[in-house]
């Protein structure tokens, strides 16, 4: 420390011990007041209630086959919600994911693509969806357009292209290996669930352990501050949309394999389910704050509700009404938890 | 003889894990300027949020004109006549001056605002403050900080306020604007309105204050001190528990700038309407201060040097290499850093933790192949925040809940962590308490001694003169004087601001 001009200035060492002795240090309780953790605890609570409801109203809720079914149903929206979490934390929104699924699915299953076999189809899905994401990202980040508008345009035109390519007809998957994606199991658990899990792990590490993840939070939380801190805001924004596109590719592969067809009707309205799950998981729609674990719990909550309704033979309209009610209740509960933590 | 207007007793307010107010008493009399003092995080802003009805206290009583009241909402407080001008101004930028003044209590006819009447009344209120020149029809977003503050005050008057609370109003004002503010305050107290005034600048307290209340760690440690008669040392020791006045570190003769090489060269930099023909250099180990009024183009120059704005003419060289104009990333890559003026809009990421905010610009140092070394990052963040005595010491807390001065420390900490070669500091001590200012000065000097070139902008002339080796005096976008800091004094700088001829 530099020599000070005033004799009565306290030396640095003393001032440090003064800090350590500050009377109002935070208690261990403060950890639980963390907004994110509360949100996750809240969702776990909702899940426990749902599971209780499920086991009281049905006989077969806890059967292994049902739980496995539940997980594989959660997988497709789950994968989408990972990309969507990145997009929303960065301050954007991606309404084109359902349409990208359709386009990737159709392009990967044309007669010509199927000639190249399993790997050719996988590669095509990844490239097509990745490029769609890149187009979104470049228009938003470098073109300065609003993500809502760009991805609404994407929603329309990507699905239009899918219809054009397929002629509106479902395309049957003839490559054996591809269909196996949906039927293969390890240790009694479908490959789809492993794919979902792998995407979760990669997404979580990317968001929480890399500089890129940090940049996503910074750009969504305060883009001007990020720019002045020397972060490449435009590149970060672009990559986020490419990631969302790649998640669409994985989802398209899963969906195409499960239905054994590529169709321009695939993934219709999936964007709404993915966004709802992410918001339910506590990610702020305005950006800068959120967790992947929350989004995944959000997806699991929705899927469990569906599952219980199907087991109880309730009709689709009633399912939809319930879904809406659950979204509103969950968000209200979170708001309360949030208020308590911020005063 | 003035009577007690407000009496707060035993106010307690806890946030999860922290007792922000721990039994505060405050008594305010009609027509007085009551100063509220305390270190960063002492609880001043929290107390006035309670008073404004923006936050509910956990315990304590509030008496207003002798009656016990409960301030359930901001509307309830306003109805009683309590108006607040917050630390971070809260006007709606997209609305006009008049609309802002009457927001929430517009004169209406069956739901339609009577706009002409609103403008007329707005003009009358602004005139009452001595600032009839502000056009009620203008959009607030276009106004300067000083004018925005006047709009907030006009809003307070429109609510028939009997008490106006001002949380660090002078922090966003220039030297001459502060005298304007003091005139307005005098006018208001003459009309019988009481003022609660918060500031970290003790000379201001002396100038306009009547009585002082001192807060420390959420408690009232002294009440009813006469503002003019209490010695500075006593106030400081009450606030901090130590006797220390802000001190500038010694200029280091060993790293005397003329022995070091030139680092930054700014040549004939111009931006239309902001500044013209700005040329200067900064050597390694040197602190160059820029003194100038708000609006003289100081911040604009810093931002242009940093590449956040594009110059019309001229260029910037770092270490002999020319920087592409208007490219922040190139400047950062070449080793430049800027701690911007507006912490909220330009620097902080509110929901991120203190540690993440502090490490944001230096993340590359704690990264291998894109992977963040979180232990190293955490340790570095803790070291620098401890040195600045940033509270709370738990760096996992979101930066959003910090007090204003502690947020400012986080902004400065961010740039102390980077290994940049030229550091641009825009108002680095805005809202920081006396003790922590000395820490910031010491760290900046230490950085310079290690060979970094520093360019400093500050509204506080003593700060520019005390910390810098060399000063540039700016007037209306032009440099009117350049000289070693010890060769000029405050009066001379003030003269230069006005005349600009002594060069
Ligand atoms: N919403 C909140 N959640 C948690 N802690 C908070 C919140 N708001 C304030 N605090 C804490 O309360 C304490 C008092 O803060 P306050 O803003 O009142 O300080 P201050 O005296 O105004 O300081 P400054 O001079 O820096 O503005 C600080 O430790 C701060 O971190
Ligand atoms: Mg404050």
UniProtKB/TrEMBL annotation, chain A:
Keyword hit for Endoplasmic reticulum: no
Membrane-spanning residues? 40-58, 64-88, 95-112, 118-139, 146-166, 186-207, 238-257, 292-311
Q: How does it sit in the membrane?
A: Multi-pass membrane protein
- Domain of life here? Bacteria
Task: Please provide the record's keywords in A-Z order.
Answer: Cell membrane, Membrane, Transmembrane, Transmembrane helix
GO cellular component: a single term: plasma membrane
Disordered as annotated region, ranges: 1-29
Q: Which GO terms describe its molecular function?
A: transmembrane transporter activity
| Compartment(s) | Cell membrane
Family annotation (CDD domains): TM_PBP1_transp_AraH_like
Per its UniProt record, what InterPro entries does this chain match?
A: ABC_transp_permease
- Main localization (coarse): membrane
Q: Where is the composition biased (Low complexity)?
A: 11-25
Q: Which PANTHER family match?
A: ABC TRANSPORTER PERMEASE PROTEIN YPHD-RELATED-RELATED, RIBOSE IMPORT PERMEASE PROTEIN RBSC
Query: What's the name of the protein?
Result: Ribose transport system permease protein
UniProtKB/TrEMBL annotation, chain B:
Identify the SUPFAM superfamilies for this entry: P-loop containing nucleoside triphosphate hydrolases
Q: Where in the cell is it found?
A: Cell membrane
Gene3D superfamilies to which the protein is assigned, alphabetical: P-loop containing nucleotide triphosphate hydrolases
CDD domains for this protein? ABC_Carb_Monos_I, ABC_Carb_Monos_II
Q: Which UniProt keywords apply?
A: ATP-binding, Cell membrane, Membrane, Nucleotide-binding, Repeat, Translocase, Transport
Q: Which GO terms describe its molecular function?
A: ATP binding; ATP hydrolysis activity
The primary site where this protein sits is: membrane
User: In what residue span(s) does the ABC transporter domain sit?
Assistant: 6-242, 258-501
One GO location term (cellular component):
plasma membrane
How this chain sits in the membrane, per its record, is:
Peripheral membrane protein
Judging by the UniProt lineage, the source's domain of life is: Bacteria
The protein, known as: Ribose transport system ATP-binding protein
């Amino acid at each position: 420390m530099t020599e000070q001009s005033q004799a009565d200035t306290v030396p640095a060492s003393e001032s440090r011990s003064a800090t350590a002795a500050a009377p109002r240090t935070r208690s261990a309780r403060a950890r639980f007041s963390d907004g994110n953790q509360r949100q996750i605890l809240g969702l776990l609570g909702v899940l426990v209630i749902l599971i209780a409801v499920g086991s009281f109203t049905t006989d077969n809720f806890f059967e292994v086959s049902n739980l496995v079914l539940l997980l594989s149903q959660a997988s497709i929206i789950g994968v989408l919600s990972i990309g969507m979490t990145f997009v929303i934390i960065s301050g954007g929104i991606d309404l084109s994911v359902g349409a990208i699924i359709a386009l990737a699915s159709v392009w990967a299953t044309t007669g010509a693509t199927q000639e190249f076999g399993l790997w050719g189809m996988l590669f095509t899905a990844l490239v097509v969806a990745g490029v769609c994401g890149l187009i979104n990202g470049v228009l938003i980040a470098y073109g300065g357009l609003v993500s809502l508008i760009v991805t609404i345009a994407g929603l329309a035109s990507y699905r239009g292209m899918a219809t054009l390519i397929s002629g509106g007809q479902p395309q049957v998957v003839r490559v054996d290996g591809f269909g196996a994606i949906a039927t293969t199991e390890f240790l009694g658990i479908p490959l789809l669930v492993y794919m979902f899990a792998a995407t979760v792990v990669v997404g979580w590490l990317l968001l929480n352990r890399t500089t890129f993840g940090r940049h996503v939070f910074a750009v969504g939380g305060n883009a001007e501050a990020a720019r002045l801190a020397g972060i490449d805001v435009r590149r970060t924004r672009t990559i986020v949309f490419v990631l969302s596109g790649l998640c669409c590719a994985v989802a398209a592969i899963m969906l195409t394999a499960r239905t054994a067809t590529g169709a321009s009707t695939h993934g219709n309205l999936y964007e709404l389910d993915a966004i709802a799950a992410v918001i339910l998981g506590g990610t702020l729609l305005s950006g800068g704050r959120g967790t992947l674990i929350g989004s995944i719990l959000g997806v699991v909550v929705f899927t469990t509700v569906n599952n219980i309704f199907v087991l109880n033979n309730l009709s689709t309209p009633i399912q939809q009404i319930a879904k809406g009610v659950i979204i509103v209740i969950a968000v209200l509960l979170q708001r309360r938890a949030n208020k308590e933590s911020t005063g | 003889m003035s009577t007690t207007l407000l009496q707060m007793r035993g106010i307690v307010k806890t946030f999860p894990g922290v007792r922000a107010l721990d039994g505060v008493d405050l008594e305010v009399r009609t027509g007085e300027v009551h100063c509220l003092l305390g270190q960063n995080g002492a609880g001043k802003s929290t107390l006035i949020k309670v008073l404004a009805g923006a936050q509910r206290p956990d315990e304590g009583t509030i008496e207003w004109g002798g009656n016990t009241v409960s301030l359930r909402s901001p509307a309830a407080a306003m109805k009683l006549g309590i108006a607040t001008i917050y630390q971070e101004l809260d006007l709606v930028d997209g609305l006009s001056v008049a609309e802002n003044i009457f927001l929430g209590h517009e004169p209406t006819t069956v739901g339609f605002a009577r706009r002409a009447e609103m403008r007329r009344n707005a003009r009358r209120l602004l005139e009452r403050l001595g600032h009839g020149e502000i056009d009620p029809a203008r959009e607030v977003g276009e106004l300067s900080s000083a004018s925005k503050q006047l709009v907030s005050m006009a809003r307070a008057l429109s609510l028939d306020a009997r008490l106006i609370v001002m949380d660090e109003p002078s922090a966003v004002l220039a030297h001459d604007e502060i005298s304007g503010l003091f005139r307005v305050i005098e006018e208001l107290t003459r009309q019988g309105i009481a003022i609660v005034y918060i500031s970290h600048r003790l000379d201001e307290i002396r100038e306009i204050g009547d009585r002082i209340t001192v807060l420390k760690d959420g408690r009232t440690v002294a009440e009813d001190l006469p503002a003019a008669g209490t010695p500075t040392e006593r106030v400081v020791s009450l606030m901090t528990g130590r006797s220390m006045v802000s001190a500038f570190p010694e200029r280091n003769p060993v790293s005397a700038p003329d022995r070091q090489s030139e680092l930054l060269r700014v040549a004939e930099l111009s931006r239309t309407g902001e500044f013209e023909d700005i040329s200067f250099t900064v050597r390694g180990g040197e602190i160059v201060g820029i003194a100038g009024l708000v609006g003289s183009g100081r911040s604009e120059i810093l931002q242009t040097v940093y590449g956040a704005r594009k110059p019309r003419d001229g260029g910037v060289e770092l270490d002999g290499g020319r920087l592409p104009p208007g490219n922040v990333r190139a400047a950062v890559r070449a080793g430049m850093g800027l701690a911007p003026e507006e912490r909220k809009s330009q620097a902080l990421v509110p929901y991120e933790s203190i540690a993440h905010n502090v490490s944001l610009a230096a993340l590359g140092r704690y990264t291998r192949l894109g992977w963040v070394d979180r232990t190293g990052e955490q340790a570095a963040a803790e070291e620098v925040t401890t040195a600045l005595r940033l509270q709370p010491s738990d760096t996992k807390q979101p930066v959003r809940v910090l007090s204003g001065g502690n947020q400012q420390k986080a902004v400065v900490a961010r740039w102390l962590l980077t290994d940049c070669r030229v550091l641009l500091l825009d108002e680095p001590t805005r809202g920081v308490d006396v003790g922590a200012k000395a820490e910031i000065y010491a760290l900046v000097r230490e950085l310079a001694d290690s060979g970094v070139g520093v360019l400093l902008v500050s509204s506080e002339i003593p700060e520019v003169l005390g910390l810098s080796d060399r000063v540039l005096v700016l007037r209306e976008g032009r440099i009117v004087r350049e000289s070693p800091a010890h060769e000029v004094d405050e009066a001379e700088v003030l003269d230069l601001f006005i005349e600009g001829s002594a060069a």
